[in-house]
Design a protein that fits this description.
Order of helices and strands of chain B: EEEHEHEHHHEHEHEEHEHEEHEH
Largest sheet of chain A: none
Oligomer: heterodimer
Number of domains of chain A: 1
Helix content of chain B: 25-40%
Shape of chain A: globular
Largest interface: A-B, 25 and 33 residues
CATH superfamily of the largest domain in chain B: P-loop containing nucleotide triphosphate hydrolases
CATH topology of the largest domain in chain B: Rossmann fold
Order of helices and strands of chain A: HHHHHHHH
Chain lengths: 209, 283
């Protein structure tokens, strides 16, 4: 699996560099308009586009066909892609934290509470979107899965809003914001792992030619 | 001699095509050429045998094992038409990737082959010509101590010089009796040079599996007119075609045919002529 991950990192390298620079610049720019920590919502979502680029690259180069003949199982191929997605999301978060920490040092209003709130929203949105788009990338052709990928981020925003509304029936969200988004985050993590299982099942049965 | 590769009753159905109980073997230490026209089922057979597509029926045994696990995959080198490696990578980066995929990856062999083929190790694959990509794919297949090579149309679209280089490599490879090759191609002249056995697939079925020498040294084509054709013993005919000015009749023993029909012109049959007569001819 390490070799396949390395291949994806090579493909994503130039894209990751552009994303990191953009996020840092955006972070400093955003601080004049909004809370800097709001960047944590955008960062993991933006950084995971590289995972999708690698999936389309695999399809274009027919790597998918080649890799099946190598000593890598179908489960490992899917596992690597999900791991790569998480790594990219984590990288996006860490990158977004750089301007937050720098601006906090200069006395800007960046609180632990706001970091946790926006961070949990960002990770939840990313995991929910990945949980939708990654299995679909192995179910549909590249054109259709590209559409699903774009739609998945909108869908994840809707799901988060829906979950928050549901939680609000149980307890008032406004007074327990961190707890509410923490619950959403846990649901997103569970969904991501369920989606991994679904993707493995789909891919094991899929004909690759 | 044990079989390096064996398929028995391999079946796969598509909407408009059926791979119908395909069976053949690749004996250890030999080169088997899988021939057939485009869409005959060569690639489907290879894909089903390698687990790329789910087979509906049949048994596949590779290097003596029916389960295609990581250990067996370590010992198989597969080359498809095109390089099938991410084009953004360079051969150098590909080496790092493959080193982490194959336990048995040998970068000494890999870089040796890159040098032998004059392939730049730092250039992106997308800048390579088709021939260079093919050479790279073959270099990779040779670099993890494979015992079985499977090549699916790997030489199609290449110029004769590159094809010759690749065929020489394949012949070198089988000098070791532990090594075997299954090569699918519709360029039958390549297989005439290197194959020990020929498996002919037509319309999803195996038409014949024979030693190449039997085909090239024994098979023949009787070229005659209508009157001579009518006089032929029909049990001697495998298949025949009526051309503009003559009849072409495929026979399995040209010497016997020449003795039996001394006035007829009996010529050796090339593999592509045999294939053509089977596909286009009447029985």
């Amino acid at each position: 699996m390490k070799g396949v991950l390395m291949k994806d990192l090579y493909i994503a390298k130039s894209n990751i560099f552009v994303t990191i620079v953009s996020l840092v610049v955006l972070g400093f720019g955003l601080s004049f308009l909004l809370e800097t920590s709001a960047l944590l919502v955008l960062a993991p979502v933006a950084s995971t586009t590289a995972a999708f680029i690698s999936i389309t690259s695999d399809a274009a180069s027919k790597w998918n066909k080649n890799v099946i003949t190598m000593p890598v199982s179908r489960g490992q191929i899917i596992g690597e892609k999900f791991l790569f997605y998480i790594l990219l999301a984590a990288l996006g978060m860490v990158t977004a934290l750089i301007p937050c920490v720098v601006l906090a040092c200069f006395g800007m209003d960046v609180t632990f509470h706001s970091l946790c709130r926006y961070g949990s929203i960002g990770i939840s949105a990313t995991l929910l979107a990945g949980g939708i788009s990654l299995p679909c990338a192995y179910l549909f052709d590249p054109e259709k899965s590209q559409i699903v990928f774009m739609m998945s981020f909108m869908a994840s925003t809707g799901i988060i809003a829906g979950l928050i509304l549901l939680i609000n029936f149980v307890f008032p969200v406004k007074e327990n914001i961190l707890l509410a988004f923490g619950i959403v985050l846990v649901i997103s993590v569970i969904w991501f792992f369920i989606s991994y299982g679904i993707a493995v099942k789909i891919y094991r049965k899929r004909d690759i030619a | 001699m044990t079989n390096a590769f064996m398929v028995s009753g391999l079946t796969k159905s598509y909407q408009d095509f059926v791979l119908d109980h395909v069976s053949f073997t690749v004996p250890g230490g030999s080169i088997v050429g899988l021939i057939g026209e485009n869409g005959a089922g060569k690639s489907t057979t290879i894909n089903a045998a390698l687990g790329l597509v789910q087979r509906e029926d049949g048994v596949v045994s590779i290097l003596g094992r029916e389960e295609l696990d990581g250990d067996i995959k370590e010992q198989i080198g597969v080359v498809f038409d095109g390089s099938n490696y991410p084009e953004i990578l360079s051969p150098q980066k590909l080496n790092r990737v493959m080193k982490n995929i194959y336990r048995t990856w040998d970068e000494r062999i890999y870089f040796g082959l890159l040098k032998q083929f004059s392939l730049p190790s730092d250039k992106q694959i997308k800048q390579f010509s088709k021939g260079m990509k093919m050479k790279l794919a073959i270099s990779a297949a040779f670099s993890h101590h494979s015992r079985l090579l499977i090549l699916d149309e790997a030489t199609s679209g290449l110029d004769p010089v590159v094809r010759e280089d690749i065929l020489d490599m394949l012949l070198d490879f089988v000098q070791d009796e532990e090594h075997s090759i299954l090569v699918s191609s519709h360029i039958t002249s390549d297989l005439e040079k290197i194959a020990d056995y020929i498996v002919f697939i037509h319309d999803g079925k195996v038409v014949f599996e024979k030693q190449k020498d039997e085909l090239t040294e024994r098979y023949g084509i009787i070229k005659c007119g209508a009157a001579q054709f009518d006089a032929l013993d029909k049990s001697d005919i495998i298949s025949y075609r009526k051309m503009d000015y003559e009849w072409q009749i495929l026979v399995s023993d040209r010497e016997r045919a020449q003795k039996k029909y001394p006035k007829a012109l009996v010529v050796p049959a090339a593999i592509d002529e045999i294939m053509l007569l089977y596909v286009k001819g009447e029985k």
